[in-house]
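Sample pair:
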Amino acid sequence: MRDPVQCEKMLSYKDMFIFDIQTHRVARANATYRSFLQVLPQGMCGKALEACYSADEYTQKFFLESDTTVTVLSGIPATDGNNPLTNDEIAETRDFVNTLAQETQRVVTHAMVLPNYNHAQQLEGMAKIVTAKAPVGAWKCYTPWGPGNGVTGFWLDDPATGIPFIERGIELGIKTFACHKGLPLPGFDNNFGDPKDMGVVAKRYPQAKFIAYHSAYQFGGADETQAYTSGSKQGVNSLVTACMQNGIGPGGNVYGELGTTWRSVMTDKTAATHVLGKLLKFLGEDNVVWGTDCMWYGSPQPLITMFMSFQMDQTIRMREGYPDLTPEIKRKILGLNAAKVYGVSAEAVRCQVQASKMAQLRQDLDDEFGSYRWALHRPPLRTRRDFFRHVAFHKAANTPG
């Protein structure tokens, strides 16, 4: 798209640049994660389990059934030979989608690194990934994960695991680290979900960027309906404490990501106001980034719609000194902040995307079947009653509150 007049028209205020930096699919549903994948909303799609999480489904959910402009595709941790989606398969998915989208940039990739498993091989693998034809957007790690046999999680500031990982990433020129913090998961050592190490390494490596995936939501089983208290080590508060104890203030090099977190609080106005308010107040309006953890949950569109319509509890906001969630700040959170972190030109990409045949196909589907068609797929609907109940639920969920 080279016509500036047409490009400006496409970039009107009615359109948002939405950059979802936490997305998933799998190539195989092996024993390690099969039960996990089966109980997720996307796992009940009515097809074989692997087909529910295929590249075709990924393309449909994000780019034909939602307003998402660009995604970051991540893996999940597993030992060799037991991985549902390898780094090579992440890259193949990126190339598949971007080719369908006429070479527009719809998918950016993470490279999964497991510093506490076959350490030397992991660091060597980082170098091989960087020499590939298309560079990755960031390194992804799960500090609470361990390979077993007595090895559990690791700390980012551990001189034997985390520090070599960070220094190798910086040396290779990819200085963004996306790390799972909070959101306790079965089979993980959730003590390592504590973000205390993130504050330490952010201070030590100011040239790098550290994204706390899930923003330490519910670390320690926290009640997220409360304001920050000095020194708190629970939930989103623990991320704030980690930053404050290391002199990382608003606009620093620590970012809070909203994957699953927003989905968990979006129908609880008090919790949503506190979670978003604390991140905006203590990390800064430029340091809160959008992620959904889809397609675990099917299409991300209901999460986007709820966020667009959400208004903070003004009594809580004013009492705690939270910035208001203005339309401009929503635009930052939904995409503009992450675009800067990942080095993506929001305007150029969106203009190219809007001119693509994939975007036109999505518009044609919206015109023919309506913008709520994502609500008619998951879980499978078998009766007329199921249909009307499902549509009524999703319309209610998207009502401003």
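DSSP finds 17 helices and eight strands in the chain.
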